[in-house]
Design goal:
β4 and β5 form a beta hairpin. The chain has a single domain (3-135), classed as CBS-domain (Roll), CATH 3.10.580.10. The strands form 2 sheets. It has a 3-stranded antiparallel β-sheet with strand order 1-2-3. The protein has a two-stranded antiparallel sheet with strand order 4-5. The longest helix is centred in the C-terminal third of the chain and has 13 residues, at 123-135. The chain has 6 helices and 5 strands, in the order αββαααβαββα. It has helices at residues 20-30, 49-60, 65-74, 77-80, 94-104, 123-135; strands at 34-39, 42-48, 82-83, 108-113, 116-122. α1 crosses α3 (65-74). With 141 residues, it is α+β, with helices and mostly antiparallel strands.
């Protein structure tokens, strides 16, 4: 099985210049936990719900709402993203993607062909594979 067979192709992305409010709104609205960050058509980072929580927890928890709003609008995605994230090819074996996700303790990997983002493979996608295999009665070894 290949990554391309199970990856999510319609990926919502952010720009490094986006305010972190945009990330927060997308996490809430789309119920997603990670967003590749694209600049000039190239993958430059990834921002996760953990990055957002870490960025806002220390500076916002004990502040008043207007300051909280100011920070959400002032801090840019580039300030909290993980730059140059590990990515995988759509032609890679799905087991390789699962191993990388497990070893790196991340929730997903951007999928790139050349420098172009073509999808994302996540823990959820891997669980879908498992469900599919189990429902077809496949032996897991």
């Amino acid at each position: 099985m290949k990554v391309k067979d199970w990856m999510t192709e319609e990926v919502i992305t952010l720009s490094p210049a986006d305010p972190i409010r945009r990330a927060a709104e997308l996490m809430d609205e789309k119920r997603l936990r990670r967003f590749p960050v694209i600049e000039k058509g190239r993958l430059v980072g990834i921002v996760t719900d953990r990055d957002f929580r870490n960025a806002t927890a220390s500076s916002v928890v004990l502040t008043e709402k207007r300051y909280h709003d100011f920070l959400l609008d002032s801090i840019r995605v580039e300030s909290i993203m993980t730059p140059n994230p590990r990515a995988i090819s759509p032609e890679a074996d799905l087991a390789e993607a699962a191993r990388i996700i497990l070893e790196m303790k991340v929730g997903g990997l951007p999928v790139v062909s050349g420098e172009k983002l073509v999808g994302i493979i996540t823990e959820t996608d891997l669980i879908k594979v498992l469900i599919d295999l189990l429902s077809r009665g496949k032996e897991l070894s």
